[in-house]
Amino acid sequence: MKAFRVSFYMFCMVLFAVCPAMAAEELIGEWLLDSADSGGVFPDTSGYGYDAVVNGASYDSGYGGFYFDGVADDADGADYLDIANAVYPYDFTKDFRITLDVATAATGWRPFFSRRAGSGWQSGDWFMALNNGVITGNGYGVGTYGPGTTIVNDFFWHSIDMWYVSDTDTIYCNVDGKEINEFETSPFKNGTPDNSGHIWIGNHSNYQFFEGWIKNVRVYRVVNVAYNPSPEINSFGNAAGTQTLSWNSPDAAVTWYDVYISTDEELVDNRDASAKVASYASQNSIDYTLLGDTTYYWAVDCFYDPDPEDGVTEQVLWEGLSGDTWNFTTVGNYAVNLTPVTGSEGLSIFTQFGWNVDIEADTYNFYIANSQAELDTAVPVSFTAGGTEISFDPGTLELHRTYYWKLGVVRDGSEYFSSVRWFRTGGVETLEDFNAYATAADVREVWTCPVYQTNELDVGPEFSRYALVVPFGTSDVTYSRTYETAIDFTGVPAIAFEFLYKSAVQGDNPESFNFKLQDESGGVIAEKTVDSVDDFITPEGGSVEGEWHWVYISLADAPNADQVKKMTISVPGQSVAGDLRIDTITLRTPYCSGAIAGDVYGDCVIDIRDFAIMAENWLECNRIPAESCFTYFFQADVE
To answer: How distant is the alpha carbon of residue 536 from its chain centre?
Structure first.
C-alpha cells in the first residue's frame, strides 16, 4: 500500500526567513532496516516495490539497524544496499526529501546516501555523507558542498532530514530537528537531468563506504499532480456497483478536475475523449458505477485559474502536468489471484490452493487432474466457504507429477470457471531435515529421546553435517516423533532416510535397527528392520565405510497410509555401545536403479507420459547457429 503524507517544511531559520514553500509529499521509497533481510533483499515498504539488494551489510539486533563495516576489501567486499538494482525511477533534479537515522563513531568520509547514473563517478552523480561526523556532500563537477558544524559520530542514533528545492537549487538539512546546513550550491542540476540512475545506501561509487548503523531510510517526492487515490493503486477486492472514487489535490489553488476512466489503459494514458467521464469543479471525489471482475484504469488532471480576479474563467493545467494513471480491480463471479502460480516447478506434495473471490459465492467446485484432457472430465470436489480469501487442501499429491487444475464458482445455479492452471511437484519431499537444527537440544525438542542421552550433536570434518544421533548400548533405545496432525502418505511410493556407515568397527555401527511408521493407536503402517549393512539399498550399489547411504521403505501396499501419526527409530540392545546417525527423512519416488533411454518424464518408467512430452516438442531444434536446424530438416541426404 502506498503511503502518502502532506508535510510542511517547518524547519526554518526564522531570522533569515529561509523556508521552502508548503508542499504535498508522497513517500516513494521506504527501507526501515529494522530486521534481518530475506534472502539478500530488504523490502521497500512504500508500496512501490523498489527493494534493496543487500551486499555485505547485515542487521544488528543490538543497535536495531543495519551495520556497515566501511571496508572495501574484506571477505564479503564492501557493505552497501543497492536500491532498484539498476534504475530508480525518480528525477532528482526535481524537489525531493530524504530522511534516515544513523549511528557511527567513524572518522573520514562516510557516504550514507548516493545517486549514480551508471558505473563509476560521472555527470549527474552525487552523494550525502558524514565527514568526520559533519553532514556534507559532493557532486560530480561540483566538489564538496555544505560544510556543517554538528558532530554526530558519537555512537548515538541521530535523525537526518535533507530536502532539495529545485527553484533555488538549494539543499536544506536538519539533524535531530535542528537546521544545521543550507547548501547554496548543489550538484543536482549538474549533468543531464534524468531518472535512469539507481541509489545506494552506505556507498559512493564503490569508492567510499559508510561505517556504522543506518535505519528508517525514506525518500519523498514533492507531489504536483493528484495523488492518494481511493481505491488504492493495484488494489483487489473492490466491490462492484456504484462506488465513490476519490483523490487528494496537490494544491489548494486547484479548482477543477478532469476525470478519465476506462478498462483500456492506453485510452487513459492518451486522454482519449471516450475515456473522459466529466469535468468537476471543486470536488475531490465522484460516484461511478463499476462492473464486477474488471480492472479499471483512471487518472485525474488538475486545473486552476491563474487570475481569478480578472472576471474571465480560465482553466490551466496545474504545473503543466497530466496526472498519473492508477488502476484497481473489482470482484465478481470469477475467482482470481489463484495460487500456486501456473508453471511452478518442484512444488510440495502438501501444497495448499488459494484464490480470491466474491463473498456471495454459493459453493466452489475444485477440479484437478494429471492432464488437461482428463481435467475436462474430472469429478470436482464441492464445498462451501465464506470470505473473499479462500484456501483448499486437496490432500497429499503425488511426487514428480504434473497437475492441471481450475476452480468453478457456483452462484444462483450458474458456474463460472477460472482459467486452467498447471504446476509440477518435486521428486523429493523432506519431512525431517536434521541439518536445519542448530543443536542436539533442538532435535530433542521434537523427538522423544532416551533419558541417558548426553552427547551433543556431531558435526565436523568426519560427518560434515548435523544428524539425529541415537546412542545405543546393552539396553534397547528408541527415538520417536509424533505429529500434531496425521500426515497423508497416500500415493507416496517410498519413504527414505540416510544412515552413516561409519567404519568396520562394530562399536561404531549397530548390528540392526528398525524404522517404523505408525498410526495414532500405535498400529504399524510400514516398517523396515536393517539387519546388517548388506541390507542397505544404496545409490552407490554397496556399503562404503564413512559414507551416507539411503534406506528405502516401500509404501506401495501400506495400510492406512493417510493416517501416519508417528515415526519411530529403535535400536535393540547391542553387545558393544556406539552411536547410530540418521539424517534427512524424505518422501521419494521409487529408487531408480539406472537411467532408461526414452524416460523423458524422469520417473524410471517409459509410458504414455514420455510419448506426450516428445510429441509436444516434435521437430523443435535448439542447435546453434539456428541455420543448422534448417540444414538438418531439409538437406536432401538426411534420411
So the answer is: 41
469's enclosing H/E stretch is: strand 468-472
Q: Record the pTM.
A: 0.50
DSSP three-state, residue 118: coil
Between CA 366 and CA 353 the distance in angstroms is 10
pLDDT greater at residue 276 or residue 451: 276
Q: State CA 607 to chain mean position distance.
A: 38
- Give a three-class secondary structure readout of 188-214: CCCCCCCCCCEEEECEECCCEECEEEE
Cell of 87: 534504475
What is the distance between the alpha carbons of residues 3 and 28, in angstroms, rounded to a whole number? 8
Amino acid at 630: F
Rg of the chain (C-alpha set): 33
Closest C-alpha among 107, 99, 30, 103 to residue 60: 103
Say which amino acid occupies 19. Answer: C
Sign of CA dihedral 50, 55, 59, 63: negative
> 308 Cβ partners below 8 Å, 6+ apart?
none
CA dist 5 → 99, 219, 223, 348, 516 (Å): 14, 12, 10, 43, 61
- In single-letter form, the type of residue at position 537 comes to I
Q: CA 467 to CA 488: how far, in whole Å? A: 25
H helix runs in 202-308, sequence order: 265-269
Quote the percentage of the chain above a pLDDT of 70: 81
**All three cell numbers of 48:** 512501490
**What confidence tier does 548 reach under pLDDT thresholds 50, 70, 90?**
confident
Q: Which amino acid is at 374?
A: E
Q: Are 67 and 196 in contact (CB under 8 A)?
A: no
Q: What does the DSSP 8-state code read for residue 167? A: T
* Choice between 352 and 470, residue whose per-residue pLDDT is larger: 352
Contact 201, 213 (CB under 8 A): no
Residue type, 488: D
CA atoms of 428 and 399, how far apart (whole Å): 7
Helix (H, G, I), strand (E, B) or coil at 535: helix
| Least-confidence region, from 39-43, 131-135, 149-153, 504-508 | 504-508
Q: Which residues of 457-479 are buried (b: 16+ CB within 10 A; e: fewer)?
A: bbeeeebebbbbbbbbbeeebbb
Cα–Cα distance, 585 to 350 (Å, whole number): 16
CA–CA distance, 361 with 359 (Å, rounded to integer):
6
Phi/psi of residue 171, nearest 5 degrees: -105, 135
Cα-based distances in Å from 411 to 364, 365, 484, 505:
9, 11, 37, 70
